Amino acid sequence: MRSLVYYVAVSLDGRIAGPEGQYDFYPVDEDYSRQMNEEWGDGLPTGLHEALGITPPLTKWDTVVMGTTTYRIGSDVGVTDPYAHLRTIVYSRSLDPADFPAVEVVAEDPVEHMRALKQEEGGDIWLCGGGTLAAALAPEVDRLALKIYPVTAGDGVPLFAGGFAPQQWKLVSHRAFDIGVILAQYERA
Question: Bacterial bifunctional deaminase-reductase C-terminal domain: which residues (predicted)?
Protein backbone atom coordinates (compact mmCIF):
# COMPACT_ATOMS: atom_id res chain seq x y z
CA MET A 1 0.00 0.00 0.00
CA ARG A 2 1.19 3.51 -0.80
CA SER A 3 1.97 5.98 1.97
CA LEU A 4 0.90 9.61 2.23
CA VAL A 5 3.90 11.77 3.18
CA TYR A 6 3.39 15.34 4.37
CA TYR A 7 6.69 16.99 3.34
CA VAL A 8 6.67 20.68 4.11
CA ALA A 9 8.62 23.63 5.49
CA VAL A 10 7.43 24.81 8.89
CA SER A 11 8.41 27.60 11.26
CA LEU A 12 9.20 27.03 14.92
CA ASP A 13 5.70 28.23 15.75
CA GLY A 14 4.05 25.76 13.37
CA ARG A 15 3.34 27.93 10.30
CA ILE A 16 3.83 26.66 6.75
CA ALA A 17 3.12 30.08 5.23
CA GLY A 18 2.37 33.62 6.31
CA PRO A 19 -1.12 35.11 6.52
CA GLU A 20 -1.02 36.08 2.83
CA GLY A 21 0.58 32.81 1.74
CA GLN A 22 4.15 34.10 2.05
CA TYR A 23 6.91 31.53 2.24
CA ASP A 24 9.93 33.70 1.45
CA PHE A 25 10.77 34.24 5.13
CA TYR A 26 12.47 30.84 5.43
CA PRO A 27 16.27 31.24 5.47
CA VAL A 28 18.26 29.27 2.89
CA ASP A 29 21.88 29.12 1.83
CA GLU A 30 23.75 27.46 -1.01
CA ASP A 31 25.00 24.43 0.94
CA TYR A 32 21.60 23.64 2.47
CA SER A 33 19.84 24.09 -0.88
CA ARG A 34 22.33 21.82 -2.65
CA GLN A 35 21.92 19.04 -0.09
CA MET A 36 18.13 19.23 -0.09
CA ASN A 37 17.96 19.35 -3.89
CA GLU A 38 20.11 16.23 -4.14
CA GLU A 39 18.08 14.28 -1.61
CA TRP A 40 14.57 15.72 -1.99
CA GLY A 41 14.57 16.99 -5.59
CA ASP A 42 11.21 15.30 -6.18
CA GLY A 43 9.74 18.16 -4.15
CA LEU A 44 10.96 20.86 -6.51
CA PRO A 45 8.89 22.19 -9.39
CA THR A 46 9.77 20.46 -12.64
CA GLY A 47 11.04 23.70 -14.20
CA LEU A 48 13.83 23.88 -11.62
CA HIS A 49 15.19 20.40 -12.35
CA GLU A 50 17.05 21.36 -15.52
CA ALA A 51 18.18 24.68 -14.10
CA LEU A 52 19.65 22.95 -11.04
CA GLY A 53 21.01 19.90 -12.84
CA ILE A 54 18.66 17.44 -11.16
CA THR A 55 18.25 14.39 -13.34
CA PRO A 56 15.42 11.87 -13.02
CA PRO A 57 14.71 9.23 -11.90
CA LEU A 58 13.48 10.68 -8.65
CA THR A 59 12.45 8.24 -5.98
CA LYS A 60 10.63 9.80 -3.01
CA TRP A 61 7.12 9.62 -4.52
CA ASP A 62 5.30 9.54 -7.85
CA THR A 63 2.18 11.55 -7.00
CA VAL A 64 1.63 14.98 -5.46
CA VAL A 65 -1.62 16.26 -3.93
CA MET A 66 -2.48 19.83 -2.97
CA GLY A 67 -5.38 22.14 -2.29
CA THR A 68 -6.63 25.03 -4.39
CA THR A 69 -4.64 27.77 -2.64
CA THR A 70 -1.35 25.91 -3.05
CA TYR A 71 -2.11 25.15 -6.69
CA ARG A 72 -3.01 28.78 -7.40
CA ILE A 73 0.54 29.92 -6.49
CA GLY A 74 1.72 28.50 -9.81
CA SER A 75 -1.41 28.56 -11.95
CA ASP A 76 -1.93 32.28 -11.36
CA VAL A 77 1.41 32.93 -13.09
CA GLY A 78 0.83 30.43 -15.91
CA VAL A 79 2.42 27.29 -14.42
CA THR A 80 -0.46 24.87 -14.91
CA ASP A 81 1.42 21.76 -13.74
CA PRO A 82 4.23 22.74 -11.36
CA TYR A 83 5.19 19.10 -10.81
CA ALA A 84 4.90 17.65 -14.31
CA HIS A 85 7.35 14.89 -13.32
CA LEU A 86 4.66 13.62 -10.91
CA ARG A 87 0.99 12.76 -11.17
CA THR A 88 -0.55 16.00 -9.89
CA ILE A 89 -3.91 15.99 -8.08
CA VAL A 90 -5.60 19.18 -6.91
CA TYR A 91 -8.44 18.84 -4.41
CA SER A 92 -10.84 21.64 -5.24
CA ARG A 93 -14.54 22.31 -5.39
CA SER A 94 -13.99 25.71 -7.03
CA LEU A 95 -11.77 24.83 -10.00
CA ASP A 96 -13.39 23.59 -13.21
CA PRO A 97 -11.42 20.53 -14.40
CA ALA A 98 -11.97 21.62 -18.01
CA ASP A 99 -9.98 24.81 -17.31
CA PHE A 100 -7.02 22.88 -15.83
CA PRO A 101 -6.40 19.85 -18.07
CA ALA A 102 -2.72 19.52 -17.09
CA VAL A 103 -3.67 18.24 -13.61
CA GLU A 104 -6.36 16.05 -12.06
CA VAL A 105 -8.92 18.22 -10.30
CA VAL A 106 -10.84 16.21 -7.71
CA ALA A 107 -13.99 17.70 -6.19
CA GLU A 108 -14.98 14.64 -4.16
CA ASP A 109 -14.18 14.06 -0.49
CA PRO A 110 -10.37 14.09 -0.19
CA VAL A 111 -10.31 11.42 2.52
CA GLU A 112 -12.29 8.88 0.52
CA HIS A 113 -10.33 9.73 -2.62
CA MET A 114 -7.02 9.38 -0.75
CA ARG A 115 -8.01 5.99 0.66
CA ALA A 116 -8.66 4.75 -2.88
CA LEU A 117 -5.48 6.40 -4.18
CA LYS A 118 -3.37 4.68 -1.53
CA GLN A 119 -4.71 1.32 -2.74
CA GLU A 120 -3.50 1.92 -6.32
CA GLU A 121 -0.18 0.59 -7.58
CA GLY A 122 2.67 3.06 -7.45
CA GLY A 123 5.04 4.94 -5.21
CA ASP A 124 4.32 7.12 -2.24
CA ILE A 125 2.13 10.22 -2.37
CA TRP A 126 3.38 13.68 -1.39
CA LEU A 127 1.01 16.01 0.41
CA CYS A 128 2.37 19.36 -0.75
CA GLY A 129 -0.11 21.66 0.99
CA GLY A 130 -1.86 23.40 2.44
CA GLY A 131 -2.88 23.44 6.07
CA THR A 132 -6.62 23.01 5.50
CA LEU A 133 -6.12 20.02 3.22
CA ALA A 134 -3.58 18.58 5.68
CA ALA A 135 -6.17 18.81 8.46
CA ALA A 136 -8.76 17.06 6.29
CA LEU A 137 -6.28 14.33 5.32
CA ALA A 138 -4.69 14.03 8.79
CA PRO A 139 -6.13 10.54 9.43
CA GLU A 140 -4.53 9.34 6.19
CA VAL A 141 -1.06 10.87 6.68
CA ASP A 142 1.43 8.06 7.26
CA ARG A 143 4.66 10.05 7.56
CA LEU A 144 5.71 13.60 8.28
CA ALA A 145 8.91 15.02 6.76
CA LEU A 146 9.21 18.46 8.33
CA LYS A 147 11.83 21.01 7.39
CA ILE A 148 11.78 22.96 10.65
CA TYR A 149 13.24 26.42 10.07
CA PRO A 150 14.79 28.59 12.82
CA VAL A 151 12.23 31.36 12.40
CA THR A 152 8.91 32.28 13.96
CA ALA A 153 6.09 33.66 11.84
CA GLY A 154 3.64 34.82 14.50
CA ASP A 155 0.65 34.28 12.24
CA GLY A 156 -0.21 32.44 9.06
CA VAL A 157 -1.18 29.03 7.75
CA PRO A 158 -0.76 26.33 10.41
CA LEU A 159 0.74 22.93 9.68
CA PHE A 160 -2.72 21.42 10.28
CA ALA A 161 -5.50 24.04 10.04
CA GLY A 162 -8.21 22.06 11.76
CA GLY A 163 -9.82 21.53 15.10
CA PHE A 164 -8.32 19.90 18.16
CA ALA A 165 -7.38 16.33 17.15
CA PRO A 166 -4.25 15.02 18.89
CA GLN A 167 -2.28 12.37 17.02
CA GLN A 168 0.87 10.61 18.21
CA TRP A 169 4.01 10.44 16.05
CA LYS A 170 7.29 8.59 16.44
CA LEU A 171 10.54 10.32 15.44
CA VAL A 172 12.37 8.03 13.02
CA SER A 173 15.16 10.33 11.87
CA HIS A 174 16.46 13.85 12.18
CA ARG A 175 19.24 15.86 10.65
CA ALA A 176 20.48 19.32 11.50
CA PHE A 177 21.89 21.65 8.86
CA ASP A 178 24.43 24.40 9.52
CA ILE A 179 21.87 27.15 8.86
CA GLY A 180 19.76 25.83 11.74
CA VAL A 181 17.16 23.87 9.78
CA ILE A 182 16.21 20.48 11.17
CA LEU A 183 14.77 17.84 8.86
CA ALA A 184 12.68 15.67 11.18
CA GLN A 185 10.87 12.58 9.93
CA TYR A 186 8.05 10.94 11.84
CA GLU A 187 5.82 7.91 11.42
CA ARG A 188 2.55 7.24 13.16
CA ALA A 189 3.13 6.00 16.70
Answer: 4-183
